[in-house]
Amino acid sequence: MKIRSILATFASIALSASSATAGLVAHYTFDDPTNLSTNTGSATLVWNQSAGVAGTNGMFAGAGAFVTGTSQYWMNDFSPAAADLSNFSVSMHVRGNNPPWDDYVSIGIGTDVLVLERNGIGSCSLYSAGNPGGTNSAALGGSTTITNGNWHHIGVVSDGSTVELYIDGVSQGSSPYVGTGTITSFQIASRFGDGARAITADIDDVAVYDTALTAGQMSWLAGNVAVDSPPDGTPAGAVLTIVSSVGSVTVGAANLSASASNTLQVKTDLTGGSWSNLYSFTGVTETNWVISTTNQSFFRIEAN
C-alpha cells in the first residue's frame, strides 16, 4: 500500500463511487437550435409531432422554450424503439412560473399516463391519467418551490413495483406501480395525444433511462448533464478512514472499484465553496495518504 504526502487539512468524511450501468434510451439536450428534436440516446425514435418550440439559454447550454398558445407539443411514440422500458427513469430540468396544473411531461402506455405537473403551491406533483398503474388518486406531491425563475430538476423513477417522484435530486415519496409492459408514450410540455394541459416553461436536458436509477444517481443528475451511467453519490461498500496524529492525518480508502477512476477531494466548508482535487488514482481497490493538517477540512472520494 503506497503512502503519499499531500498538503491539506483534517476533518470528516463523505463518499461517492460508481453506479450500475444504466441505458440512456432518449436524451434531448436542446443544444442545436436548428434541430431541437435531436436525440442522442441509444433508441431510434421518430417524432410524431414537434412544433412551436424555440431555442433559449439552458441549464447547461441550450434549452427548449415552450409557450402555451403556440400549439406546441413534443410527442413521441416509443413503440417502434427496441427498448424495454418496463423499468424506467425520467430526468429533466425546468424553469418558469407557469399556472397550476399544466404538464411538464407525460409518460405511460397509450393515453394512460403518469403526468408531472405544476401543482397549486408552486411545486411539482405526479398524477395518473387513465390507468397507467402508477399513482392513485392520492398524488405524490412535492413542496419544493420550482416556479421562482431558477432552473430546477424534476424526475420519476419506476422499478416496476413502485414509482417515485424527485425534485432537485431529493425523493418526494413513492407509490405502488402496477403497470405491465414497456412504456410507449412520451410527451413533453403537455398531455399525451393532444395539446391539453400545455405548459409555458423552459425545459432542458430531458433523459429517459431503461432502468430504475438509484437515489444517488438522481441526486447527481440534479446538477449535471445526463450520461449513460450516472455516478451514484451513495454507493455500498466504499470506505474512507481517518487516523490522526500530531501535525498530520492518514486518510485511507478501501473497497474501491479497480476499474473506476477516483479522486480524493477536500473542502473546508460544507455549506459553500467547491471540492478541490488532491489526488487522482485508478486500478486500485485500496490506498492511503499522509496529509499535513492545519485546521478542519472534509474529505471524499469522487468516482469519475
Which key terms come to mind for this protein?
304 residues, mainly beta, 8-stranded antiparallel β-sheet, 1 helix, 46% strand, elongated, disordered N terminus
**SSE class:** mainly beta
Instruction: Report helical residue fraction.
Output: under 10%
Output the radius of gyration: 22 Å
Shape: elongated
What is the CATH first-level class name of the largest domain? Mainly Beta
Q: Gap between N and C termini, in Å?
A: 22 Å
In brief, what are we looking at here?
The protein is an all-beta fold. It is built from one helix and 23 strands.
Q: Would you give an account of this structure?
A:
- The protein is mostly beta strands and 304 residues long.
- It has 2 domains: 3-18 and 235-303, no CATH class; 24-221, Sandwich (Jelly Rolls).
- The chain has one helix spanning 215-221; strands at 3-7, 10-15, 24-28, 47-51, 53-57, 62-66, 73-77, 88-95, 103-109, 112-118, 124-129, 140-141, 152-158, 162-167, 170-176, 185-188, 201-209, 239-245, 248-254, 261-267, 276-282, 287-292, 296-303.
- A hairpin with a 2-residue loop joins strand 18 (239-245) and strand 19 (248-254).
- The protein is elongated, with a radius of gyration of 22 Å.
- Residues 1-21 and 133-138 have low confidence and may be disordered.
